[in-house]
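Hello again, I could really use a second opinion on something today. For a while now I've been wondering how a particular protein folds. Please have a think about how the structure follows from the sequence. Here's the protein in full, and shout if anything looks odd to you:

***
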Amino acid sequence: LDGPNGITTVVIGANTYALVASFSDDGVQIIDITTPTTPTPVAAITDGVGGFTELDGARRITTAFIDGNTYALVASDVDDGVEIIDITTPSSPTPAAAITDEVGGFTVLDQAQDVTTVGTYALVTSFLDDGVQIIDIFAPTTPTPVAAITDEVGGFTELDGPNGITTVVIGANTYALVASFNDGGIEII
């Protein structure tokens, strides 16, 4: 829990868990908070241990439910990528995939800051690449790049140093809202 930088919650079975991304410890702490007055550590995941390779500088964390399994997705600042972790059994998390900037067609993950999901897609902000990487996670063990959106290309003007992202559905459309630190603004995609 040294340098916690991101947190989310998830319900698996009858239990509620907090998932904490730890920047300084380069990992994720899973905590059972079903009884909030007595939180219990369930698992600690560390970069370079047990097959986990994209957790150095873990920044933000989110979850996705795909084909009956629960996954945690972690944006890693120092590793320039995303770790996908199968947490269906929270006490025995397993690596599903590691995504790295400039490998396998992923081009906008340098200093990954935040991650969110919509359906079976992950959207990741890249502080140094000034943009957003969209990733198809329909098959979580073999994620594929879908699109790379960057500042000052294709009409996008507020993506310099993006460090936060969320999605919203309005009517029939899904939008990503990106907070851009250096631009002092928000890009709606």
Remarks:
- The radius of gyration is 16 Å.
- The mean pLDDT is 97.
- The CA atoms of residues 148 and 154 lie 11 Å apart.
- DSSP finds no helices and 15 strands in the chain.
